[in-house]
Structure formats: C-alpha cells, structure tokens
Specification:
With 463 residues, the chain is mostly helical. It contains 18 helices and no strands. The protein binds tryptophan.
C-alpha cells in the first residue's frame, strides 16, 4: 500500500496521464534497435530460433529490469545520479550508488553520439527515397548512394546536425510541452505507418516466406553468440540499464501501476520489432535478396527492393519517415537523463542544459561521422570511434548498468520499499519479479560479460 511518508516531486514535472507515460516509454524503447538492428541480427542468426530466444530474454530479463528502473526512478524523483545516491543512502547508508547513475548518464551521452549519426542517415533517406533515387537503381547505384552519404563527412555531418537539432528542439520545452507532446503526436503516426507498410508487405511481398523465416525455429542456425546477441539486444531495445527509464520513471504519477505499464511497453516494443521484420523480410524475399545482409540491410538491401516494387518510391519514403520518428523519440530519452542531471546538479536552466548537452553530444558525434571516412583507419580498441562506442556501450556499460540496477532493486532495497512502490496486486507476480531481479538478471549479465571477454580475446588474437 502507499506509505504515509511524504512523496517526493520531480523538479522537471510529471506526465499528465498513464497513457502519456506509456507512449513516452514506448517511444524510448522503439527505435533504431527495432527497425534497423533487430531485423538484421535476426537475419544473420537464422531467424526463427533467434526470435524465440530473444522473446525469452526480453520477458525474463528485460521486463523485470524495466520495472526496477521505473520503481527506483519514481521513488527518488530526481535525475538518475541524484536518485541512486539518495536511495543508496536511504536503503544502505551508502551514497556511492550515485556512481551507477553517473555510468548511465555517461553511457546515454555516448550512445547518442553514434545513434544520432545513423538516425541522420534515416532522415537523408526520406529525401533520397522521396526524390525517386532508388527507382530502378542497380545494386551498385544503391551502394553508391549509401557510400556517398557515409563516405562524405560534410553530408553525413549535415544530417547528424539536423537530427541533434530536432532532439534538442523537443527537450528544451520540458517534460509536458516537449517530451509528452512529441510522443503523443509521433507514436500514433508511427503505428499507423507501420500498419500501412505491413498491409503492403502482405499484398505485394512474399509474406509466407517472410513469416516462416521469422517464426519457424531452425535451431541448427543458432550459435551461443547468437543467444548472447539476443540477450544484449534485449537491454538495448527496451532502453534499460542506462537510467533513461529511471529518468522517465521520475515523472510517473503515483497511482500508475508499474507492473502493468511495463508489460504493455515490453509487448509494444516486441510487437513493433516483429512487425518490422514482417514488413522487411517478405519484401527482401520477393526480390530474391539476402536476409543476412547485416547492418546494410535497411540502407542498401531494402532500398534496392523499394526501387523495383510497385509504389516503391512512396513506400520507401514512408519507411524512412517511420524510422526517423522511431529514432527521434529514442534520442529524446537518451538526452533527457543528461539534461535533467545538469539542470538539477549544476542549477543550469533546463533550456541552457539541453542546448549545452546537445552541443557536446553533437561534437562527440562528429567522431562517429568521421569514422566512415577521414578517421576510418583510426583504431580505438574495438575499431573506429563508431564501432568502439557501440561495442563499449552495448556490451559493457549497458549490461553493467542493468546488473547494478537489478542488484540494487533485488538485494539492497528492502522488501518493504520495493513492494510498496510496485504495489503488485498478485503476490506471485511480486515473487517472480524479485527472483528475476536477484538471480536471473544478474546471472544473464555475467554471461554477456564472459562473452564480451571472449570477443576481446578474439580481437586481440586477430589484431
Ligand atoms: N531502445 C532504443 C532503440 O531500440 C535505443 C535507446 C533509447 C536506448 N534509449 C536508450 C538504448 C537507453 C539504451 C539505453 O533504438
């Protein structure tokens, strides 16, 4: 039950309804991870069996961590750094838990510095697609379009700048007038566009083959690395582990059920990833293309298909518009924890914090832009800046943050605090959440780490 202690209030404001929170959190979750990364890693790992493992990871590990992050955020009602310090002190007398918040803020900063560059390509493709550049193009011509975009740093920097500008534009306006208004507009449009594309793919694509590819498990194609890729992606796609969900949790009204909303958001994110696969693969198969193309799947393979299908110009434009909207609401969730922290910690106005943080991320993002051209040969340990930033965040900071959050909620916070904040109607649901937080999620992260160490050794061997 709600405790009698005085509830804190977030200095940033509060979502005006449960729906607003669901849209904001779904907006954070649904992004490049769903539309760009999920289809290509599913493709590379053989489809069906990978999808099955991914579902287990999302519901078994991602969902309980999402609940923990929201409950911590709402209890602290501050930016992730302050919240972790505050609750750490309250629950265990140790303020140093603020470091976990700091890891999240730093990780979000770095993720956005490469996320924005890929999102910028999506924006560029709206215009490429719209101008009919894909129409009847050969594989070489499509390759030249993508190569021309990534290879030319001025062009790539232009789109990255535009995308960061769009993100800051929303965030300066605050939680209700900025974030909430953006997700209320963008998320329904995104869903509508996705269903439109699904209809197209059913009518014009090789839908049965796409369906079989996604859902017929061929376990022979699944490797141990594939399993860990699925687990790592569960964190990324749900946006957990970096304090983004914690920041959004600080703005949740007290009477909103954390369990129910988390289940809705996880289903929404998973559903959108699966539907995106059902849009992409039937079109890929209908055109005799390779589903295991890799990161170029949506920027090279798919445009090739769009160039050869009836109505391809309009369908292609809609696809990249959808991708841009998805990336935009995610980018907002990546910058928000950093902005809230600078605002609350340094006393800088929200507006100035958003502009300053946006400019700093933009500047770091230039290294991502340059990773595909001028600095393509620079090796920061895991390849270019772009590759290193992705590797470091996806495989190290993200799981480490998830681990710390699960351990904090499962082992450090008292039963009274977590049960009081979650207020799950069903005692079994609470027991399941606690078991997942204490054992399943931490163990899963340890597995990711062992894998990452293996990858490091492998990289060391091969240079
Ligand atoms: N989940 C988003 C996607 O799938 C990316 C994202 C947004 C994210 N916020 C995050 C990833 C916070 C990790 C942490 O594209």
């Amino acid at each position: 039950m709600a405790t009698s202690e005085a509830r804190r209030r977030s200095p940033q404001g509060s979502w005006t309804s449960r729906l607003a929170f669901i849209l904001a959190l779904s907006g954070a979750a649904v992004g490049l991870g769903n539309v760009w990364k999920f289809p290509y890693i599913a493709g590379e790992n053989g489809g069906g069996a990978f999808v099955l493992v991914y579902l287990v990871c999302v519901f078994g590990v991602g969902l309980p961590i999402m609940m923990s992050e929201i409950l911590i955020g709402r209890r602290g009602r501050r930016n992730p750094v302050a919240t972790m310090g505050l609750l750490g002190e309250e629950e265990s007398g140790n303020k140093n838990w603020y470091l976990v918040g700091l890891l999240g803020v730093g990780g979000s900063f770095i993720i956005l510095s490469y996320y924005s560059v890929v999102a910028g390509w999506a924006v560029a493709y709206i215009f490429q697609g719209g101008s009919g550049a894909f129409s009847g193009a050969s594989p070489e011509q499509i390759g030249d379009i993508f190569g021309g975009l990534t290879g030319n740093w001025v062009t790539s920097a232009f789109w990255h700048t535009l995308f960061m500008g769009m993100t800051v534009f929303v965030v300066v306006r605050g939680v209700v007038k900025g974030l909430e208004r953006a997700v209320r507009t963008l998320m329904p449009v995104l869903l509508g566009l996705l269903l439109l594309l699904l209809g197209y793919s059913i009518v014009e694509g090789n839908f049965v083959e796409g369906l079989l590819f996604m859902f017929a498990p061929r376990f022979g194609d699944l490797t141990p690395t594939g399993v860990l890729t699925a687990l790592g992606h569960a964190f990324f796609t749900l946006s957990v582990g970096m304090g983004a969900v914690m920041a959004y949790g600080a703005y949740v009204p007290d009477d909103v059920s954390i369990g129910t909303t988390s289940v809705i958001v996880v289903c929404m994110d998973t559903g959108i990833a699966l539907i995106t696969g059902l849009v992409i693969f039937p079109i890929v198969f209908a055109n005799g293309l390779d589903p295991a193309e890799g990161p170029g799947l949506i920027f090279v393979t798919l445009p090739l298909a769009f160039g050869n299908i009836p109505g391809g110009t309009i369908v292609g434009t809609i696809f990249f518009l959808l991708l841009t909207f998805a990336a935009w609401t995610s980018a907002i969730s990546l910058i928000e924890p950093v902005v809230a922290w600078i605002n609350e910690h340094r006393g800088v106005s929200r507006r100035a914090a958003a502009i300053g943080v946006g400019a700093a991320i933009w500047a770091l993002g230039l290294l991502s832009v340059l990773s595909f051209n001028v600095l393509a040969d620079l090796n920061l340990g895991w390849g270019t800046y772009f590759d290193s930033a992705d590797f470091l965040t996806s495989n190290i900071t993200l799981p480490a943050g998830g681990f710390a959050i699960a351990v904090f909620a499962g082992w450090i916070m008292s039963r009274r605090s977590t049960a009081g904040e979650l207020r799950l109607a069903n005692p079994t649901a609470y027991r399941l959440w606690r078991f997942a937080s204490r054992f399943v999620a931490p163990l899963a992260v340890i597995l990711i780490f062992l894998n990452a160490i293996g990858v490091l050794a492998w990289l060391g061997l091969t240079g």
